[in-house]
Design goal:
Blueprint lengths: L4 H36 L5 H16 L2 H11 L9 H27 L2 H9 L4 H31 L11 H16 L4 H30 L1
Helix pairs in contact: 1-4, 1-6, 1-7, 2-4, 3-4, 4-6, 5-6, 6-8, 7-8
Membrane topology: Multi-pass membrane protein
Family: Belongs to the binding-protein-dependent transport system permease family. HisMQ subfamily.
Keywords: Amino-acid transport, Cell membrane, Membrane, Transmembrane, Transmembrane helix, Transport
Length: 218
């Protein structure tokens, strides 16, 4: 085994831990906020729906890389400074929560209207209808697109490298640069192949799981 493999593997492992933590934080925040916003999009109040709709359309409509640049480079101009990890987590969560809100809205609205009417006739308030009747049924419909969103967010964590976060992609790029300066080229292919395999191993099972759920629901 070449002498450079062990230190590079250790360095990439550190980047992988950062990538994994970023993915987990972004996914959890996106799901929690997205469920809340998606539920609010089904409220009878037009004012509330309009406010939430503005949030959803803004963050869904912007490329993630633009959101990251805005948070990390523009906010410091008005005195708001965050480190690279926080900037990446907030940016991914804004985009993810907006998309999750649409998933939840669609799933809730796909539940037959008679379910809500029956719960209302039994004296359930709107929050009780959502928690005990509508959301449990909507969850099954939302599962395949939710898994797809998890895969997408995991893949998009690689964009955090553009603002300098030492994730697995940035670690691989720095390793290639150091090895090239130390002893010439020829290291990019094995290092980037290792990064490719990591994302493939993580994302492929989730993709297959999403397809399985879609077939079961059909």
């Amino acid at each position: 085994m070449p002498a450079w493999v062990s230190p590079v593997a250790s360095y990439l492992a550190g980047g992988l831990r950062t990538t994994a933590l970023l993915a987990v934080v972004s996914i959890v925040a996106s799901v929690v906020v997205g469920i809340l916003l998606g539920t609010l999009l089904t409220l009878p109040s037009r004012a509330v729906r309009a406010v939430v709709r503005v949030y959803v359309e803004i963050w869904r409509g912007l490329p993630i890389i633009i959101i990251l640049f805005f948070i990390f480079f523009v906010l410091p101009i008005i005195g708001i400074r965050v480190d690279t990890f926080v900037a990446a987590a907030v940016g991914l969560s804004l985009w993810g929560s907006a998309n999750m809100a649409e998933v939840v809205r669609g799933a809730v609205q796909s539940v037959p209207r008679g379910q809500a009417e029956a719960a209302s006739a039994l004296g359930f308030s709107w929050p009780s209808r959502m928690i005990h009747v509508i959301l449990p049924q909507a969850a099954r419909r939302a599962l395949p697109p939710l898994i797809g969103l998890v895969v997408n967010l995991t893949q998009q964590t690689s964009l955090a490298a553009v603002i300098g976060l030492l994730d697995i992609l940035e670690a691989s790029q720095r390793s290639i640069e150091r090895l090239t300066l130390a002893g010439g080229g020829g290291h990019a292919v094995p290092i980037l192949t290792a990064v490719l395999l990591v994302f493939f191993i993580i994302c492929l099972p989730l993709t297959l799981l999403s397809r399985w759920f879609e077939r079961r629901l059909q």
